[in-house]
Amino acid sequence: MRRPPHSGADSPDRISDVWGPRTPYAAGPDWPERVDLFLRDEVTASDVERWVPSACLLCSNGCGVDIAVKDGRIVGVRGRATDRVNRGRLGPKGLYGWQGQLRDRLTTPLVRRNGSLQPASWDEAMQVVADRSRALLDDKGPLSHAFYTSGQLMLEEYYTLAVIGKAGIGTPHMDGNTRLCTATAAAALKESFGADGQPGCYTDLDTCDAVFHYGHNVADTQTVLWARMLDRLAGPNPPEHVSVDPRATEVSRASTVHLPVRPGTNQALVNGLLREVMVRGWVDQKYVERHTVGFDRLEETVRDYTPARVAEICDVAARDLEAAAEIFGTRDRVVSTVLQGFYQSHQATAASVGVNNLHLLRGMLGRPGAGVLQMNGQPTAQNNRECGADGDLPGFRNWNNEQHVQQLADLWDVDPLVIPHWAEPTHAMQIFRYVEQGSIGFLWVAGTNPAVSLPDLDHVRRILAQDSVFLVVSDAYETETTQFADVVLPAALWGEKTGTYTNADRTVHLSEQAVRPPGQARSDLDIWVDYARRMGFEDRSGRPVPRWDTPEDAFEAWRECSRGRPCDYSAMTYDKLRDSAGIQWPCTDQAPDGTERLYTDHSFPTRDDDCETYGHDLATGAAVTAVEHRAWRYDGRARLTGTAWTPPPENPDGTYPLQLNTGRIVYHFHTRTKTGRARELADAAPDAWVELAPQDAAEHDINDGDLVRVESVRGHIDVRARCTGTKPGTVFVPFHYGDIDQENTGHGRRRAANELTSTTWDPVSKQPTFKSGAVRVRALPDDEPEHTDSADTSATGPRQG
Amino acid sequence: MHLATYIGLLETGCDTLAASYRQVAAGHASEADVVTLCTTFAAQCDDHKESLGPFRRQYGSHPAGEPERLHADGLATTRTGGLGLLRDLHDLYLLAAYLDMAWTLAGQAAKGDRNADLDTTVTANAAVTEAQIKWLSTRMKAAAPQALLVAD
């Protein structure tokens, strides 16, 4: 064990001890508290002037945290012992990542003049933005405008932008990078249950008998949630775990059954599990009869997925599939979690719906310990979805339901025709396609870095570099994306502004401003309100759109917008959230303390006048019409739908013989804008790498630590090799690394995983299929005398050599 | 007995639609979803044609001298740009709708002839063609405002 060199004497070490010491517990009682604290440099707890309640913004878990303030600066963090999400714990990113906010910040607006970005005043910069926007709206209309945002802004900011976009401008071209991480969670929930909304909750893990991880390496992606699972494993009557993941991970090592499926075969696996549950008599017939529609068509769909056939498609042992099915079919309380292994594959929504189907067949929803967690990738992805900054209508309303549109028109006092609702909103990849074609001439990117995070980066760079688009970027740092911008606006970050956000189990936290933003940086809320005022957006009564300009007023407006919808915040206030342990929506007059789990009455929002969507053909994404939906008479019963497995669009061949898999690692978040600037995290994982199965490495004459070129038909990266436990025939590349900050490595090699990935997406959720594609590898001559490498303790698996 | 005429028409319709899907997939290579789904749909059309083999043998083939005007023309080329994509998808929609009705009419004849095998086959194929039409409709409806109002 090595301590991070910069941590205080009393601080835990979450670099080498990622999940911290065990606090074992049995099924039933509350998860014990364990408080993690980290103070910077020589600061001690007695030096701290104020502790400001907040929640972590560096993964979708949303751990409660207190921000330590001294001399007007953030000096540390402490997990909140009372918080329902983490009971005091923090993971590596939560404990150290905030330090990335203390350096390299953008502090003044920048405007491109004579080809280079020059400092400007806010007034100058915003007027340039407003003038260009107005000219384009007058010339080409609202469809010339697009907004591409984040999963890390706050509810108030998303809702404000949604209102500006839908009631002010009237464009359907709004999406977030949530399209890359969480769109399938939303899509799968909408398809099965009629509306978005996490059915289960984290406390289900306290009582369950088994946990299924579908493409979810929770040990790396939500470390504190894994700590909760580890504590159950260390206690009496621990649950069994089942892991579906091509890689060997901490989760798979702790699992009773590990199914290392071939990438691109999730749908076959899920169909096989469904069939086993059906033919081995584990269906809760009464539940299915009363609370679902579509059993017969689903039975027909999965009929041919025998264990032998699935084993062949997925390259797993038939007996392991049967063992996994038996655990699912015979335990009373099972929690299933689903994430990017499913969401970033080509049949993403269908496979994730398959997991919902498994729970519906066994009636395992709406009771303690039996639930589905369609996970989110980012901390505020849920808010982007519910507020409509991802293009959906706010409050999980149905664009295809005129009554829902009228509700919004009444709320915003605008003509319903202003609100775009002739089709589904334009998804991110289509927005960039319209930019490429020149029909979108104004693109505002906020809090995200598409020049690293979108697939096929060479293509993305060409699009962003086009003269035909006016690119506004609001960010806290110079990034690979700001380099293409016409105007860069310096944004305030976590702790520097006030707002609320909602984690993957519907827990809402309030995070109040603890310190001032650096320089002239402003919150995204302030920036968008300034834009709206300059544009002069008005409602039918001549009032400004939006009518608010503070976070709390935005939240009040959102409470009204959400009233009566599944994501009901109507009884939630800033006062109630202050010092709370986190409150889960729906929070109403009938449930003033929030709602732990959904669907306890087994009534689902599938009624024609209530549902968020009428659904889709899972194979093609074709929309189900209102008339077709009515004919099915779902009437509050869940929809059982499915589809056959199809091979992924790009498969290994003689030229590109290996399958690509990309993903997250424990020490970093997204494109590392924050975590790459926190020294503990940067030192722990300074550079990208490629994981190869030992036999594949040997076949290509590659040794651990060798410099390797990984190449697809679209591009290449040059990274160091790790010969580990990934599935033979596949390679894994972490997706965090871009090219702009290579100070830790000293080389100038291409290293972004998305140089390799392809522009394809799931037909329903439109989530890009990052976990696919064919590549080849070869060792490169190594003229770098020394190289840094990641911590040996990475959770991704033991290294050889 | 003109069922052979319609079986021939279905076979040609499958060929024409498959070729047109492939034409659109190749001509709009930058539209990722169009490429993926049109390629899949083309393969489905190939399978549908294959499925008609037993019935061609049973009922005979397309009679000699049948006028070509019975057939819908496929797409000879693809157009470019947003409007071009919309027009090409619209053409695919018309071809698929033509085939869809041909399945229906052949199915009617199958029922009249008490041929359960043919009825089952054309009913299954019709469902797939209808799914293609629904996707084309969904995609066109989403694309139309941009193509008709803003695109160059």
List keywords for this structure.
heterodimer, A: 801 residues, alpha/beta, Rossmann fold, Dimethylsulfoxide Reductase, domain 2, Barwin-like endoglucanases, 3 domains, seven-stranded mixed β-sheet, six-stranded mixed beta barrel, 26 helices, 27 strands, 28% helix, 16% strand, disordered N terminus, disordered C terminus, B: 152 residues, mainly alpha, Ferritin, 5 helices, 0% strand
What does this structure look like?
The complex is a heterodimer of chains A (801) and B (152). Chain A is an alpha/beta fold. Chain A folds into three domains: 110-180 and 380-579, Rossmann fold (3-Layer(aba) Sandwich), CATH 3.40.50; 183-375 and 605-639, Dimethylsulfoxide Reductase, domain 2 (3-Layer(aba) Sandwich); 658-779, Barwin-like endoglucanases (Beta Barrel), CATH 2.40.40. In chain A, 28% of the residues lie in helices and 16% in strands. Chain A has 26 helices and 27 strands. In chain A, the strands form six sheets. Chain A has a seven-stranded mixed sheet with strand order 6-5-17-16-15-7-8, with helices on both faces. Chain A has a six-stranded mixed barrel with strand order 22-26-23-25-24-27. In chain A, helix 2 packs across helix 21 (524-535), helix 9 (266-279) runs antiparallel to helix 12 (307-314) and helix 18 packs across helix 20. The radius of gyration of chain A is 25 Å and the shape is globular. Chain B is mostly helical. Chain B has a single domain, classed as Ferritin. Chain B is 78% helix and 0% strand. Chain B has five helices and no strands. Chain B has helices at residues 3-27, 32-51, 53-59, 81-112, 116-150. In chain B, helix 1 (3-27) packs antiparallel against helix 4 (81-112) and helix 2 (32-51) runs antiparallel to helix 5. Chain B is elongated and about 55 Å long. The chains are: A alpha/beta (801), B mainly alpha (152). The A-B interface holds A 140-141, 143-144, 422-424, 426, 429, 433-434, 436-440, 617, 619-623, 646, 649, 758-761, 763 and B 30-33, 36-37, 40, 81-82, 131-132, 134-135, 137-138, 141-142, 145-146, 149-152.
